[in-house]
Amino acid sequence: MNCVIIDDEELPKKILAKLISQTTALDLIEVFDNPIEGLKFINNDENTIDLIFLDILMPNFSGFDLLRAIRSNAQIILISSAKDYALNAFEYSNITDYLLKPFQKDRFNKAIDKAVLQNNNLSILNSRSTTVELSESEKEIFINTDKRLIKIKVSEIEYIEASGNFINIKTVNQMHLTYSSLKKIEAKLPASSFIRVHRSFIINYKEIIDIQDNSVLINNKLIPISRRYKTQLIKRINLL
């Protein structure tokens, strides 16, 4: 599991990094003492993060402030020298555990066992919702929504929009909500028809009606195009 540490205290960071290095299930990607820099890294769609070790008490920007700003569906283990925040911590659905400083190895291992188990369960869920088997001609996917597996024809997908830890899949006749990320479903869609145009949108470029400045019209939906992806889109379409 790829993990990051966000903590402004030097000694706890070093101890935590050492514990992580001794754990085969974890791979430490980055360490931040600045919560804003950590947030930017976590919210960058280019980075794959499974687990965040997050200090609660940091100057100017607390761990709870960060929790409200994180878009990633990564698990979070809160770390603190105070017990007082434990009850509030578990009001957030992505909190896996709460570790007290100074860290005890046995307690750390229990938290990691819990995170690994949850990660394995999530992998099974994602395999049902977005592996979602493609037929030989890559025409169909299955998504998990409302505890049902629903078959969708790929050719009928108009666009896909990120919504927190979920994605909305807009087809010709319906909108489907499922637990996943754009990055995961993008890997399952045929590149011959689908293209990323924004950090929050994938479109079926064959459904494009109009392109104006920094937006694209699909059906009656105006979808933003970010500068980062615009060049790729222009290369894909046929221009006279």
Short description:
With 240 residues, the protein is of the alpha/beta class. The chain has seven helices and 15 strands.
How are strands sequenced across the largest beta sheet?
2-1-3-4-5
Briefly note the structural class of the backbone.
alpha/beta
Q: Overall 3D geometry? A: elongated
User: From N to C, what is the helix and strand string?
Assistant: EHEHEHEHEHEEEEEHEEEEEH
Distance between the termini: 48 Å
Description:
Helices cover 31% and strands 33% of the residues. The protein has 240 residues and is α/β, with parallel strands linked by helices. The chain has a five-stranded parallel sheet. The protein has a five-stranded antiparallel sheet with strand order 10-9-8-12-11. Strands 13-14-15 form a three-stranded antiparallel sheet, with no helix packed on it. A hairpin with a 2-residue loop joins strand 6 (140-145) and strand 7. The longest helix is centred in the middle third of the chain and has 27 residues, at 105-131.
